[in-house]
Structure formats: C-alpha cells, structure tokens
Amino acid sequence: MHNNPLTRPTWIAGAMVVLALFLLPAAVPRFYVYMAALILITGLLATSLNMVLGFGGMYQFHHAVFYGIGAYGFALIATKTSLPSWVGYLVAPVVAALLSLIMGLITVRLSKLYFGMMQISLGSLVWALVFRWYSFTGGDDGIHGVCPPEAVSSTTGSYYFTLSVTLVCLWLMYRIVHSPFGRTFQGIRDNPERTSAVGVDVRRHQLAGLVIAGAFAGVAGSLFVTVEGCAFPELLFWTLSLEILVMCLLGGWFIFLGPMFGAAVMMTLRTFVGIYTEYWTMIMGVVLMLIILFLPEGVLGLFKRKTTGDKPAEEEA
Amino acid sequence: MEFAANITAAALFQQILVGLSRTTILFIVSSGLSLVLGVLRIPNIAHGSLYMIGAFMTWSIATVVGGSPAAFWLALAFAPLAVALVSFVVERGIFCRLYDREHLMLLLFTFSLTLVFNDLVKLIWGSDYRSLNAPDFLQGSFSIFGLPFPRYNLFLLLTGPLVALGLWLLTNRTKIGKIARAAAVDREMVSAVGINVSWVFAWVFVIGCYLAGLGGALVAPTQNITQGMDHAIIIEAFLIVIIGGLGNIWGALLGALIFGLTDAIGILVWPQFAIVFPYTAVVIVLVFRPKGLLKSVW
Q: Are B82 and B213 in contact (CB under 8 A)?
C-alpha cells in the first residue's frame, strides 16, 4: 500500500487518544465514564453502518435493527437461559448477522433507494414483532435487570470492557475496509457496472458487506445491554437508524473514524443541550439542516480537505 | 395466544367495513407520499409529521370556531390547506435549492424537517392528548346485521373514492397533472420544452403534503390526536407505496386495501399480533413481486 494513511503523526495522536481513554475513569466522575461508554457504543454502531453506507454506497436506512436484535439476543441469553452470560456476546453478533442475511437476501437485488425503503420497512416488521411479543421480548417494556458477567458489571468495568471491544472491532473493520474485499466493495460503490464487468459478483459482495456490518452492530447492541442493563424496543426503531445516519453525515462518510466523531458530537450535544431545553430535537434538526446545506462532506471531511488540499469527494447522483 | 374461535359472518363483515374506512385514510396519506416519490424521487420522511400537524390543526380550528356544526367542516377544509402552506414555504424556502443533491441528502433533509416539526407540535399544542367530536349527524352508529358500525366510518368510506377520483382528474385531465407525469418520466425533456420544472416540483410537493394534511384532518375524530401519531403512519405509508409500486397512485390504492383489510382481519383473528398480519402480507407480496404490484414509474 503506497498511500498508507497511517502516517507517523497519526499513529502518535491515535495512541495518545487511546491512552487518554484508558485513563479516563481515574480522572472524571462516574457519569462521564458512563457517557463515554455510550458514545463508544454508538460510535461503533455508526462506524459499522458506515461500512455499508460510506464505503459500500448502499442506502442502509435501517441499521439500528441489528443493534437492537444484538441487544435482545444478549439480554435474552442472560435472563431466560441458564447459560453463562458470556455466551450472549457470541450470540448477539450471530443473530444480528443472520437477520441481516435474511433481510439482505430479500433486498439486495433492488436499486439504491428502493433498497433503502425496503430495509426500513422490513426492519419495522422486526420492530413490530419485538414490540408486541410480550411473553418473549417483554413487549414495549423491554427486558430489565439484565446482569452482565461479574467482571464487567461495575461502571468502570463495563467501560473498560466496552473500550476494549470497541477498539478491537474498529481495528477489525479498518482491516476489512482496507482488505481486497473492502477495495472491491468501494469499487462497487464508485462504479457497479464496471466492477461487475471485471467479473465481481456485485450482489454477493454487497450481501457479505451487509452481514459483516450487521454483526458489528450486534456487538454494539450487546455492549449497550452491558452498560445499561436493559434492552427495549426503541433500540430498533427507525428514528435511531436515521440518527446514526446523521452521525455518519456529521463526521463525514468517506473517513473511517468520521462516524465515531459524529457520534461523540451528537451524544454530547444531546446530553448538554437536553439540560437546558426539552426541545433539543428541534435544535438537532436545525443543525442537521445547516450541515446538509453547507457541509455535505461532514466536519472531518472539510477538515481533511482544508489540511490536505484534496478535492472534495465526488458525489454520486 | 387467543385465537377467536368462532368468528361470525356478521362480525367479519363489520370488521371488513372498519378495515375499509382505515384503508381510506391510508390511501389518502400514501397517495400523497407516492406522488412526491414518483415525481420528485424523494422519500419524504416528514410526511407523517404533516399528517400529525393536519390532525392538530383540525382540532385547533374546530375548537376556535366553536361548537357549531360548521366548525368541523371548516376545519376539514382549512387544516389541510394550512399544512399545504407550511410545505410550500419549506419547499420554496429551502428544499428547492437541494434538488441536485443525492437522494440520501434529500432524505436526511426531510428527516431534519421531521425533527423540527415534531418539536414545533410539542411547542404549540403541548404533549397532552386532544380529541375531537365529529358533527352530530355523523356521531353514533348504524346497525349492520345486528352489529354497530360508526356513521363516521361510512363518511370515510364515501370520501375515499372521491379523493381517488379527484386525483385521477388531477393527473389525467389537468395541464399540471400531465406535466407532472411527464416530469416523472423524463425531467430533462420537460425542462427542454420550456417548462419550469422547479415550479412543477413545488406544486406536486404541495399537493402531496396537502394529502398528508387531509389524512390527518379526516382521522382526527376517530382517535386521540397525540404526539407520536406520525411514527406509525409514515412506515405504513412507506410499505403501501412499496407494495403498490413506487409513484403509482393506483398502486397506493391497492396497497392501502391490502394493508387495511389484512390489519382489520388480524384484529379479529389474533388481536395481540394484529400488527403482524399486514406486514406479513407485505413480505409475501414483495417476495413474489419485488418491484410492487403495479408498474412503478421508476
């Protein structure tokens, strides 16, 4: 790779951020540790969405379904079975990937926007089932009082666990995006006809991308239950999916860590604006409008362009 | 699991009528969504919010005008127009500058509208429930095979075909409708013959949003008017438009019929999981006809 983006200053900066994140619980009150864990989880979710959205060019409008199913998968293993709750961490990505596979098999042959609308519709079917199936999922109450494994049940413990798993997942996703598979995936985004013409099975690659992204979203879901101790239907409601889409947009979807940055900004904004006004969603809406009007490449995208003098990434029609 | 073991023919008939009146609302709302999708190629997430605004607006107008029987009709006439006005301002103010952006940006823009609209509703009408009575002669029930059927639902059953007829006339018999259909197929060509496509888009968008408002106004007397009533309807309208064929008005009618009837029968057969019936119908349709039942304009 002659254009490796991981230059030396980037390495040093990255290592310092990771070090700071590991030292965080020693420095700040518990609430901030808990907030940081939630930001990492949501950032992981948004990054997994961006694998198919930014790097695959697929309009995945309902990614939160896999997050919610991962959360429910973990919560159900922990509360309804006698299995050790560690098993839940394996079950969550598997059920999320399976669901992603089933939805993908139905939707992947459709054109871009049609695909997105189908995803949002099928995902809502899953939501409706979870919302109504009181005896199994607890219906609109959800599942409360989930006990994660002892080692990770305290605030600090769950934070360190979340941080470690998130870092490993980010590293894995980074490797996938920069693997031959990831390159092909981006080729499909930029020119599906040409990629298909050189002998790539476009649909199979897209399906694989959806399943991988779904699995990582499932991991994020299991982490959420670890931190919060509960799972509820809002985790797979379509508004959350659009919110994480906004996070990807905010950070910039051509940059690997963009969605993580977007998640941090949005979650922080929500927490602190929420203290002053109950109308924070309106503020979020106005911010989103301004971004769409003036910053279509996201904040980090703009920063990258200003610093490297790159041309703006081409938008597809 | 509580299956209703003995469903009488009369109960089934009654439930089908209820389903058909629900179909009316679904058709009106989703035909508006479909119109905008077909011509502007935008999945308007804010459509549900406009439906909710239509319902609240109806309540406000009817309340301000006071108890006279005319109050409801005035509200029914003006609330959708107010919604159309809101959409007109948004379209000309911001939206029309974004048409050359990619679909994803347009979708996210409509999502930002949803966020703003929903908080505005909270700001203006508060978070309490509102309820509205239909005019006196539409209150109460008929008796059909010994089972009650609300008069207002009969009114809805009559309204649905009227709206469908109006839409047919609009798209087939008026100049703007013909231009809009042409723009749906090939907007460059329409633009090339000297028609201002931007204004055609504005009109179509406003008419689509008017239909959302009309749906909200018509539904107002039948249920609690509340925050969050937009969440369910927008997904239902999406599904209906998809199974009908994107952008096809008659597809929206067919989709609404399938959705409304399976939902009504679901309520009769298995109340707890009634919601699953229409969704299952949607999945079955899509497995066999992934592009929808009728021809999509895309």
A: yes
- Pick A124's closest partner by Cβ from B113, B116, B235: B235
- In this predicted structure, what is the pLDDT of residue B6? 60
Residues of A numbered 177-236 whose beta carbons fall under 8 angstroms of chain B's beta carbons: which are they? none
Tell me which residues of chain A, numbers 252 to 281, contact chain B at a CB-CB cutoff of 8 Å: 278-279, 281
Angle at which helix B9-40 crosses helix B249-269, to 10 degrees, equals: 150
Q: List CB contacts (< 8 A) between A128 and chain B.
A: 275-276, 279
Q: Decide if B108 and A292 are in contact by the 8 Å CB cutoff.
A: yes
- Do A307 and B93 touch, CB atoms closer than 8 A? no
Tokens of B275: 């919601």
Q: Is the pLDDT of residue B230 over 90?
A: no
For chain A, positions 44-73, list CB contacts with chain B under 8 A: 59, 61
- In chain B, what are the domain boundaries? 9-288
**Angstrom distance (rounded) from CA B211 to CA A315:** 33
Please name the CATH architecture into which domain B9-288 falls: Orthogonal Bundle (1.10)
Cα-only R_g, chain A: 19
CB-CB neighbours of A155 under 10 Å: 14
pLDDT digits (tens, 9 = 90+) for A187-220: 888 888 888 888 888 889 999 999 999 999 999 9
State how far residue B279 is from chain A, nearest Cα, in angstroms: 6
Which one, of A271, A269, A217, A222, lies nearest residue A240 by Cα?
A217
Chain B from 228 to 267: CB within 8 A of any A CB = 231, 235, 238-239, 241-242, 246
ipTM: 0.82
pLDDT in tens, B35-82: 998 888 888 989 999 999 999 999 999 888 876 778 888 888 999 999
Q: Which of residues 1-40 of B touch A (CB under 8 A)?
A: none
Dihedral over alpha carbons A253, A255, A257, A259 (to 10 degrees): -10
Instruction: In whole angstroms, give the CA distance from residue B142 to residue B147.
Output: 8
Which of A129, A288, A316 has the CB atom closest to B115's CB atom? A288
Whole-number Å distance between alpha carbons of A103 and A51: 17
Instruction: List phi, psi (to 5°) of A309.
Output: 70, 20
CA A19 to chain centre: 23
The answer to whether the beta carbons of residues A244 and A63 sit under 8 Å apart is yes
Return d(Cα B15, Cα B271) in angstroms, integer. 12
Interface-testing mutation among B108, B230, B248, B296, with chain A (most A C-beta atoms within 10 A): B108
B279 contacts A316? CB cut-off 8 A:
no
Q: Is residue A301 within 8 Å of A256, Cβ to Cβ?
A: no
A314: left (phi over 0), alpha (psi -120 to 50) or beta: beta
What's the token pair of residue A71?
Answer: 């959360």
Give the DSSP H/E element, type plus range, for residue A182.
Answer: helix A180-190
pLDDT at position B98: 83
Closest CA of chain B from A225, distance in Å: 25
Inter-chain CB proximity A132 and B275 less than 8 Å: yes
Per-residue burial over A50-74, b if 16 or more Cβ lie within 10 Å, else e, is bbbbbbbbbbbbbbbbbbbbbbbbb
Terminal CA-CA length for chain B: 42
Closest chain B residue to A283, measured at CA: B116
